[in-house]
Amino acid sequence: MWVYCAVSCLYSCALVMLGAYYNSADTIYGEEEGLHPVFIFGAMKRGEPMHHWLENPENGFCQFITKARTMEKFPMVIATKYNVPIVFYKPDVGHHIHGELYEMNLRMIKKLDKYEYMPNEIIARIETIMYNDSKTQELVKRPAIMYVKYYLDIDNWEQLPLVADYHSKGIHGLEFKERPVKKKSKKKRKHRSKSKKDEQSDRIKGKNNTEAELEECIRRKNERIQKHLNKTLIRNHT
């Protein structure tokens, strides 16, 4: 077991040293201002169910650049109960992945990191993206962030059909399902009987009382305070 752990650790370290492995796009760009290239190939493409996420100003800013594809081949499958398109980091297997190149600000990149990582441990890495220049039609190669999955932990993924150009309503019949947002559960407070202090506090705050009762409570409280002050003054003079 310890041999396996040691080998895994060395492999991860080697990836980091080569600049191939990153936990998030945020760690790649740091705090650099401006817009940064990100390659989108799944349900956030234009015309797909999650494109509204990119258009939401609360998530940050992005702009569409062009349609593009990866220089290397990767296996992309549709998996999980939500029919999510996932690209495994297994180069030279599958197809050139077709998608869209965007430029995003850091706010959107940070939110995209969390969105991609949370359910399926999908992380960011830099890949070479290719597209044809709209003016010259020349092939352009450009590095961009791409979200991939390193761990091949989806059951029988090799038996799933490999996709090159994802569309939610494609012939595969596996329409994308947006995962529900988890709401923070409010803990129910245990019911306890009110003490005299609580009842007094309720009276002072005017809970379940008329204005006349509230004024009476305040008057009595002021009387008690005044009596206490008088006693203190008498002790100080004697």
TrEMBL record:
GO terms for molecular function: gamma-glutamylaminecyclotransferase activity. This is Gamma-glutamylcyclotransferase family protein. It comes from the Eukaryota. Belongs to the gamma-glutamylcyclotransferase family. The keyword Ubl conjugation does not apply. Residues 177-214 are annotated as: Disordered. Residues 196-214 have a biased composition (Basic and acidic residues). Keywords: Signal. Residues 1-25 form the signal peptide.
